[in-house]
Structures are given as C-alpha cells and as structure tokens.
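User: Okay, second chain of the day. Same drill as before: sequence in, structure tokens out.
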Amino acid sequence: MNGTAVRRWPAAAVLGFVALTASVLVASPATAVAGESESITARIARATAGDTIVVPAGTYREQLVIDKPVILVGDGQPIIDAGGRGDVVLVTADDVTLRGFTVQGSARDVFDEPAGIRIRGNRATVEANRVRDTLYGIVMEDSAGHRILRNEVSSILDFGSERRGHALYVWHTDDTTIEGNTVRGAKDGIFLGFASHNHVERNSVVNARYGIHYMYADHNTFVDNVFRDSVAGGAIMFSRDITFRGNEFAYNRSAASGFGLLFKDVDDVEMTDNLVHHNRLGITLEGAPHTPGGTVTLTHNLVGFNDVALELATTTRVTFSENTFVGNLEQVTATGGSVEHLNTWSIEGRGNFWDDYQGYDADGDGVGDIAFQYDGAFDDLARRNEWVRAYSYTPARTALDQAARWFPAFRPAPSVIDAHPLIRPPMRLGVAATSADRFASLAAAIALSAVPLGAWWRVARTRSAGW
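Assistant: Same drill. Structure tokens below.
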C-alpha cells in the first residue's frame, strides 16, 4: 500500500461514519419541543412517524388534525381551543397518543355532533386530558384498540342534559379500554353502540342523563365504576355477554325513570358485587333473558334504600342468589301480571337476605327454615290508591302488611318465594351511610306520622267543641 492510499483511508472512514450516523438519526423517532408561537398543526406537518412533540403551556387557537402516528405531550396543560368551530381535535392516523392537554371550544350545533376529540384511526391513546365546553367529549367511531385513560370530560354546561352530547361515545368500536375517567355534566356519560370486547373500569359519571347507555353491544365488561346523581344510572339493551362487577349505581331519582340499572332484551348477563342504592327504582328487568338459551344472573349485590328494589316484567327469568335487599320501601313490583313462579331465588340452597324476613334458623346454618314470601299488601293497595303512599314511613304500613298475614283472604299473590332466605346480609353499605339513612328514615317516619295524628286531633277537637 503506497503513502497516498494510506492518507486517503482515514478520510474515507470518517465520511462513512458521518453518513451512517446521519442515516440512523433520520430513521429514529425524534423528540421536538414546539415553540409557543408556533401552531401545533405546523409542528405535526414537519414531524415523521413516531416522533414525540412536546407542546409548552399556552393557548393554541386551532382545529387540530393528527394525520401521522405521533405522540403529542402537553407540558403544563396547554389549551387547544377551536373557537366554536367543528371538532377541536380530529385523529385520522393509527397509533396516535394525545396526553396532557385541555381541549375546548367545539361547535354547538347538535345536528353535526361536534366533539372535543374525534378518533377515526386505530389504537389511539388519549390520556390525562381535560375536555370541556365541547358538545360531545371523546368520540370513537369505526375503529378499534384504543386506550382512553384518566381524562376529565364535561359537555356544554349551560345546555340542559338533553341538548348536551355524550361524554365518552363508543360507536362501532371494539377492543378498547376506558379506565379512570371522570365525567360530570353530559347527556350520556358512556355510550356504547355496536361496540364489542371493550373493558370499562374505574370511571365516575355524575350529573348525566344516563350514566351508561348501551345498545347492540356484546362481550363487554364493566368493573368498579360509579354512576350517580343522574336521571338514570344505566340502560343496557339489546345485547349479550355482559359482566358487571363491583360497580355503584346510586342517587338516580328522576320521576321519569330514576332506575339504578335497566336491563331490556339482554342475554348472558352476570352481575356481581355491585351496590345499587338510593334510586327511585333499583333494578328494572324486562326481556331478561331475551332468548330461551340465555341467562341473567345476579349474585352478591346490595340493593338497598330504593323506593322499589326490583321491578320485574313477566318476560323475566332471572336467577338471584346471595343478594342483600335492605331498606327499600318496596322489595319487588311486578309489571304485566304475576311473576310468582318465573324467577329463581337461590343457587345450591343459598337464597337472598331480605330485611323484612320474619323466619328463624333453628339449625344455625345461616339459611332460614321457612320460605320468604313477599306479597306487599301495602304496596298493592298503594298502586290502586296513590294517596296511600303518604303513609309509607308510618306504622300504618306495617299494620296493613301484618293484617294481610293474619287474614290470607286479603293477601295478594306473592311476587317472590325465596325458599332459602339468608339470615345475615352478605353485603353492607358503609357504617356512616347506613347510620345516616336510618336517621333520615326516622325523621321521615316522625314527620309523616304527624299527618294522620293531626287529622285525628282536629276531628277530636271539633267533636269536643260541639258537645
């Protein structure tokens, strides 16, 4: 090798190394920090697939279209404000992440259903955002594989609930996880339609029309969610293979509906370890199951402190076991006719706990030795004479029910015959909540008892004056 060749070799090696390094840098995803004066749209336009774009705090007045698989991260909760035009953020690419933003200012036209975040690509991650003052919140349509995590969502709060949009709207979308979100003030908190194999966990919905509204959606699971203070807790319709575990449906008391949970025309439902309390109607069941081979099973739930615990149509064939029915004004009401022999009230010799059971357990196995029958003589009379409900919290209710037991000729047909009633409740509400409820019930009983006593006193006084 001559001297000239030796001198050229280091130069060629250096040039080759520089070229190789440049190619690696171009091929690898980059992290870029957008300037506050630069739009997010401009930064996305320059990005390549897989880039991470960090957006500093500030207000970005734009409608954002994310058409590349990038990761957008807000530093200091930057605001994306569409100024009342259309959708605020539209995701059309697959594998997009949107984290740490405040999204606000969609259009308000109900017909167009404008959203804070609309997702049309697959496998989006939407995490730790605040979506507010948008008609619809986060909309997923014709897509799959999303992760919707720890967002705060509200609609346009100066609209009534019927005019607002859904907070989390899952439409023709499968294999999605919705977890840890907080919804306050929307039409429906979580709406699923034609959506399968989704998992909904640890979300909280308050002040909505329906906490969850669910139609034509199969193979979905709901775990540890809270649906409170709404027109209705949940409506589950025209679907199959649904699991509810550890959820709470409470304080849904609208006179128009006010049910904690409605099941209509459903199959293969498992409902376990849920709290259904302080609703107008606890659980309403119609067409459950919907087909001859379907099942609906409720085990180890607490249904308490509702006006009516269970509303059962004649189209129900439900199995109940180890549920706790406590503090309800009415345990069961039937619609459409007698439901006496339609439902199953125990599994393997384990029935349910009824706080108005008056039987005994001689052998100490925790199961009553005589069957529990619920006929509700007072409730039967109140259905035919609405004014009678004024005495719901008074001794008159107990007296009428007891009289019906003594004189069977006046006893209505039972709506429940639980052959294996439990002596102890399998579930309880917290001690503080239970004590408060007892105090409220006592106060109501004293107040309402004053009505007949006051009437009796006036009559007695009038007669005394006349003598």
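The longest strand covers residues 232-245.

User: Thanks, on to the next one.
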